[in-house]
From TrEMBL:
InterPro entries: MoaB/Mog-like_dom_sf, MoaB/Mog_dom, MobA-like_NTP_Trfase, MoeA-like, MoeA_C_domain_IV, MoeA_C_domain_IV_sf, MoeA_linker/N, MoeA_linker/N_sf. It comes from Paenibacillus thalictri. This is Probable molybdenum cofactor guanylyltransferase. Its cofactor is Mg(2+). The lineage of its organism: Bacteria, Bacillati, Bacillota, Bacilli, Bacillales. The keyword Metal-binding applies.
Length: 631
């Protein structure tokens, strides 16, 4: 069976990774292919980095585990061919025997340095959607069974083939139900097709490593929405924690909250007055008051002792429980006993009452069990009141992501150092720290990194182990000391994107470092700010469970012309002002990528579509609001 299908949903179950690292490597002069290097790292390292992104566990199938011990970890295990020397099918047999019924593997050959977690995720989604035994990529008209998804149910066929002496992977496809994932299904998800590239011969290896290509200039420009989609593929929710309610302001709920009791949970008086039966006032007017016997006085917090009989009333305070037999409360001002009338006395009521008047019925605001706060909701004043009303002394909220912030650049001075020619002070780190706080994270401002790619690499990799996310600024363009560009040039598999169709911030870069998202924002302060708002902020909202990760948007009218055209859409730091019914927007100040002063005045980003002439005065524009109470 063979279908050409597009990508569907993402795979709901964890995959097991399998790297076939056996084989004799005759054509590589006996070198272990898994240990060949690309960009300073072994193929195995590059592969495990991808596998760790989507696999709970990865098996390396090898008969020489002693050569690979340094790759062993709690997520990486070894297994050996049952019968060595029978090729990939035997390796597959060994791996499938390790996993449980219903599970599936992402199986790759060890000679593919660019295996892709993104491609595997696309295939895993198809695997689940179509309920097949396997999903095989078909690239350039060739099936690639050694970068494919296989279900455990393939084991029987694999074993039958091996018993019959059949070692060809392609032959296996005759006995299982599979579909092909075509080029379009990967392209649609922005996945480069080089994941199937493999190295069989010394010649091919030389070609692969022969001279560093000038990748810094060869960038794939993607749309803002596509960049957001790529980073969101790596979204993981923060773990929950419990905090005292009074400490929960600004946090996001990790659990929905339902009404523990109806609100109100007893019939409540809305005024200070007398509870009575409306029927007793049927003929009443100011000239003809009704005289009722006062039987008790009910204060807030009291439970009425008596059920009112016809002709009776009870003095009652705002918020107190309305007694049985009463269906209305008349305000003190409508009676002759404004200054007190207690049991044994009579009250004259001067108003004709209607049933229900000034009585709040049970459940008027919320019924018992009614959902009142959704998961991911930002806790502010109203939410605090609700949580308190339902007896939540503690709130279950998501832990704030720890965000390591690195400024890069040898021109950057510490804040307490005198300014020197050519040098500047590092303002981005502090701006980012504030933005991270605003987004509900814990910023960790790290020491400024010099323009040294190796040192930058070491620092961000170490930080990735101790934080939930990393932000760097600077060094993402094409300059000689653009260190983040250098870092990713050596690790193409770790890169999510490095060019976005937007101004400012077109070289905004993102990638995965030790399993954590790295946002490499531009060093230009304006671009750094916009990059944060468009990518980091929504991602952080997602980590904290927010239902809506995007900034709220509205339409506004440009106050004056915006004369600067651009090949890319422009996100102008702007200010909003209501003039009558109309929302008028204008740039907050100098809007260059390198300008910093206008950031403090911006409460929105004005979207100017790409085009030669910018936008005209009075033109209707998209306004991305940054002033939202939901952070
Ligand atoms: N030949 C080209 N040059 C540039 C291009 C290009 O395509 N071709 N792109 C431009 C664009 S667009 C941008 S945006 C910037 C991106 O620059 P980088 O991210 O590489 O940043 P740096 O080169 O490190 O610094 C740029 C600028 O920002 C100042 N800076 C850096 N860090 C900080 C900080 N922490 N606080 C305050 N200011 C900072 C730095 O001193 C520079 O002035 O590249 C264009 N060039
Ligand atoms: O994309 Mo850059 O931030 O415009 O100058
Ligand atoms: Mg630069």
């Amino acid at each position: 069976m063979k279908l050409q299908m597009g990508a569907g949903r993402t795979y709901g179950k964890p995959l097991t990774g399998v790297i076939l690292a056996g084989g004799e490597n005759k054509r590589m002069g006996g070198r272990l292919k898994a240990l060949l290097e690309w960009g300073g790292r072994t193929f195995l390292e590059l592969q495990l980095e991808q596998m760790n992104q989507i696999c709970e566990e990865t098996f390396i199938v090898t008969n020489r585990p002693e050569l690979l011990t340094k790759y062993r970890s709690d997520k990486v295990r070894f297994t050996a061919d049952v019968q060595p020397g029978l090729g990939p099918l035997a390796g597959m047999q060994a791996a499938l025997r390790q996993i449980g019924d219903g599970a599936a593997v992402w199986l790759v050959g060890c000679d593919m340095p660019f295996v892709s977690a993104g491609a595997a995720a696309v295939m895993a989604a198809l695997y689940e959607e179509y309920g097949v035994d396997a999903v095989i990529p078909c690239i350039d008209g060739r099936l690639q069974p050694l970068h494919a998804i296989y279900g455990r149910q393939c084991l029987a066929a694999v074993e039958r083939h091996l018993e019959d002496g059949e070692r060809r992977m392609m032959k296996l496809l005759d006995s299982i139900r599979w579909i092909a994932a075509d080029e379009a299904s990967f392209k649609k998800s922005g996945i480069s097709l080089d994941f199937v590239q493999n190295v069989n011969t010394t010649q091919q290896y030389k070609l692969l490593t022969g001279g560093p290509a000038e990748t810094r200039f060869q960038r794939e420009t993607i749309k803002v929405e596509e960049a957001q989609r790529r980073i969101f593929q790596h979204l993981r929710l923060q773990p929950p924690e419990r905090v005292p309610l009074e400490m929960s302001f600004g946090r996001r709920l990790a659990k929905p909250v339902a009404a523990a009791q109806p609100v109100p949970h007893f019939r409540r008086s809305g005024v200070d007055g007398y509870a009575l039966a409306a029927a007793d006032t049927a003929d009443t007017s100011s000239g003809q008051p009704a005289a009722l016997d006062i039987v008790e006085s009910i204060l807030c917090g009291d439970v009425p002792a008596l059920r009112l009989k016809p002709g009776q009333a009870a003095r009652i305070m705002t918020g107190a429980m309305v007694p049985e037999g009463a269906d209305a409360v008349v305000m003190l001002e409508m009676t002759d006993k404004m200054n007190g009338g207690g049991p044994g006395e009579r009250v004259c009521v001067k108003k004709r009452m209607t049933p229900g008047e000034n009585v709040t019925p049970i459940g008027h605001e919320a019924a018992r069990g009614e959902p009142v706060l959704e998961r991911g909701r930002l806790i502010r004043a109203g939410e605090m009141a609700v949580l308190a009303a339902f007896g939540h002394a503690e709130a279950e909220v998501y832990k704030p992501p720890r965000v390591a912030i690195f400024a890069t650049g040898s021109e950057l001075l510490d804040l307490n150092v005198p300014l020197a020619p050519g040098k500047i002070r590092n303002s981005n780190s502090y701006m980012l720290a504030a933005l991270v706080c605003e987004a509900g994270g814990d910023p960790i401002v790290m020491p400024v990194l010099p323009d040294d790619a190796a040192e930058v690499g070491r620092s961000i990799e170490a930080a990735a182990l101790r934080s939930d996310m990393i932000i760097t600024t600077g060094g993402v363009s094409v300059g000689d000391k653009d260190v983040l560009t250098e870092y990713f040039a050596d690790r193409p598999g770790a890169l999510l994107f490095n060019k976005v169709a937007m101004r400012p911030g077109s070289p905004t870069t993102a990638g995965i470092v030790s399993g954590k998202l790295l946002f490499a924002l531009s060093g230009n302060p304006g671009a750094c700010y916009v990059g944060f708002q468009l990518f980091v902020k929504p991602f952080m909202r997602g980590m904290l469970g927010a239902a809506n990760v995007n900034h709220p948007e509205c339409e506004g009218l440009l106050e004056g012309p915006y004369a600067k055209g651009s090949a890319y859409p422009r996100y102008v730091r702007g200010m909003m002002e209501m003039q009558g019914e109309r929302l008028i927007v204008k740039p907050a100040g100098l809007d260059k990528s390198s300008s910093m002063m206008s950031i403090k005045d911006a409460d929105c980003l004005i979207f100017i579509p790409a085009g030669g002439s910018g936008a005209a005065a009075g033109q209707k524009v998209r306004v991305i609001r940054l002033d939202s109470p939901s952070g």
